[in-house]
């Protein structure tokens, strides 16, 4: 049975296409749950969201305000999604007013912040008054439903691949989603385990927003999600979305992911044009070599490929970086938004021959291997 998507407008004021607008960007690129009908960002009003993100129209308009969105859209969206992911925990007063306004219009509220709108007295009262729902994506499960590590991950006998990164907001989720889609398209049954709010909003069946959990349960929840995906789906491969970076001094998420899913390999996402860590301008970015060494030191696994973010780089620069990394590190390297996932799939097939046997082979290749001339 096909479940109809809910329509949604995504609020991302002055952040769309930037680091703190990653939730909005992810939903604009892909969502099995929502049909995104507009983005709210007054700094980009009148533009096309796809062109702003990927230089390709997707006919999702960017509006100056909620009022203009509702004036122009033919139908009232089902949902108002808070699409920013700021470091701060509490939203400003002006944004509260917009959420209340959306509820008075009859829109459900989808919230990916650590600030739970459903526990806010003013929001809860307005939601009840207007007959709308508030969904806090990051709200953790009840204590009785949380899991500690059990060791059952050792029973998973298909490849588990973690898509980690060297920083926050550098494209880990995008690469994981794109790779998951590409694998399934060629007949390799792949399941993506989500570890953050955006992938859950996109419709991932398995996973939880791990940065909202008590640390005691992070590793167990990741293990449980991978084991459930294995037992219920019987996939050929399981991909696990990464968070932050193993080396990041502010966050522990990637360490928990490594321990919880015990991956058979890691795809490492890296933004070579970034000089300082996202939201921390005093912290220089690590080198990709140091991150690889740290991953290997923590977990008995290997980085098997590199995926690049092309932010602040020209096409010539990204091609030069790809060639340099492949020559120096001997690892297949690509930018999935520009060149697709063929190199990553090729690397996985070489390392795990069982995957190659699962491919539905067309008469002529549909995903050519990108090569550097």
TrEMBL record:
Q: What is the lineage of its organism?
A: Bacteria, Bacillati, Cyanobacteriota, Cyanophyceae, Pleurocapsales
User: Looking at the record's lineage, which domain of life comes first?
Assistant: Bacteria
Where do the D-glutamate N-acetyltransferase-like C-terminal domain residues begin and end?
A: 147-344
Which ranges carry the D-glutamate N-acetyltransferase-like N-terminal domain?
43-140
**Protein's recorded name:** DUF1611 domain-containing protein
Give the coiled coil ranges: none
